[in-house]
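Q: Could you write out the predicted structure for this multi-component system? I'm mainly interested in how the pieces pack against one another.
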Amino acid sequence: MEENKNFEITPDLFERLDDSDKNAEKIAYESKTYFQDAWSRFKQNKLALAGLCFLAIMVVCCIVIPMVSPYSYDAQNMAVASQNPTLAHPMGTDRFGRDILVRVMCGGRISLSVGVIAALIALVVGVIYGGISGYVGGKVDMVMMRIVDCMYSIPDTLYVILIVVVFEPSMFSILLGISISSWMGMSRQVRAQVLTLKEQEFSLAAFVLGASPKRILFKHLIINSMGPIIVQFTMLVPAAIFSEATLGYLGIGLSVPQASWGTLANDAKGLVATRPLECMWPILAICLTMLALNFIGDGLGDALDPKKK
Amino acid sequence: MFKYIVKRVLIGFITLFILATATFFLMKITPGSPFSAEKYKSPEALAAAKAKYNLDKPIMEQYVLYMSDLAHGDLGESMVHQGNTVWYYIKHGFPVTARLGVVAFILSVFGGISLGAAAALSKKKWINNLCMIVATIGVSVPSFLIAMLLIIVFGVELKWLPFVGLTKPANYILPAISLSLYPIAMIARLTRSSLLEVMKQDYIILARSKGTPYKKVVIKHALKNAMLPVITYCGPMFAFLLTGSFVIENAFSIPGIGKTFITCVTDRDYTVIMGVTIFLGIIIITFNLLSDILSAMIDPRIKLK
């Protein structure tokens, strides 16, 4: 009885907590989504950021300059033929008196859109093919991947040239050729992702809750492999621009007077000895854009997949 | 091992079969015909020409005939320059391409490995940076642009090197450099990352602690073990050098198989397009096979599926 008395609880045993201590458990930073997190990592990569800025400027120039310029890409004016850069023509004129700046920017419209559209087609086909192959697995997977292996072992250039020959050189055949030759890498990547993700608990949980295979594949597995898919996509765009430029350079690309960067380089090929400056513009445009895209791709790769480093 | 090789050879044959079939039917659905030149004005001449190339037969029969000829190594005759077999074009063009390819191959392997090793082993920051810059430019700039830049700088402006044809040894320099910059960059990246990995291994530390000189450790132990990804890459690299030379031959006016192929594409010379495609396919598939088998033989850790 004596002991109990000692333990009598009185209000003065308690001490009021300082208000600041209440927040000890609170998370100081706002929680970031996956893409905010990736963006903050991407921003630290100066090279990738510079690439992104350059690409943005290039895209804006390609859209705006042909619209505001007094010259059109195919208007010939022999009075000003083969001029060096002047105030009126910042990049000079070609042998038909066409303004090179406008031609290079119009070429950029075609080259960049071919790159993006072909990469998008390859993305869709690759994701669906690889997703199905990885999710279904077994014999289906084996057959589907053998087909990819077969197609993979034949170089892109051969496909693209053959398809452009069959369907006549046009935007459609070039897009078709490039997409057919570039979806395999994407499908392999997606398959590998799906194979590992489908063994994880959330996928089992979705299955137990009665989600259909289609829903599990597209809403859960593919959404969760978005990082590698985006990285692969940013690598596909320069590859497609590369293929298109190569075709144009070989003289089996788009026909005149339309011009992409590749066909401009092909036009300028004969002038290498006499007017090297004129060939430099399309070369410079492709080189810088490709470098920018590659830097962005590398930066995104590090930003979206921090474990890789 | 034997089972693995047999399986790979079998897959190679299937790939080749698919390639030949696809090329055949693609050429059949192509609009336009090589027989539109002046000499086929009369219908009899046209019919005779069509009969010569089996074009008057039903398509499946044409396919069977083509495939059986192919199995006997007969690739047919040019439709535009009659009398010239497809083999004639290959015999004239391929050795030129192969010579350039071998030079570019040697340049790629030596350049790539030394660049990658320098980047991995050097303590100096600028060497590492230089290697990475070369690797980035090599991967991201198309070869024809490099070719044009080299022609402008070294051919036209400085007049140091010739840039037309492939007659003298000096003629090889510019085409070989422009063709091999991409493989150099790839090999440098592969060598760098795999060498960095290997240098961390226990057997390197053991060799060092036993007092083996640094140079010997690098050459005998590290580089030898770091070469596996490079050997695996050799197959795709051959494919790249072959098709990449389409562009380079065009830029430097080299009369190789690539230039023949592009000329035939513009002339719509179907038999030659098919023949050259299949020929290149055989070579590329063979080299892929060889590099895979080689890397499986060298590295017992590779699981033979």
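A: Regarding packing and overall arrangement: The domain at 47-70+95-308 of chain A is CATH 1.10.3720.10 (MetI-like fold).
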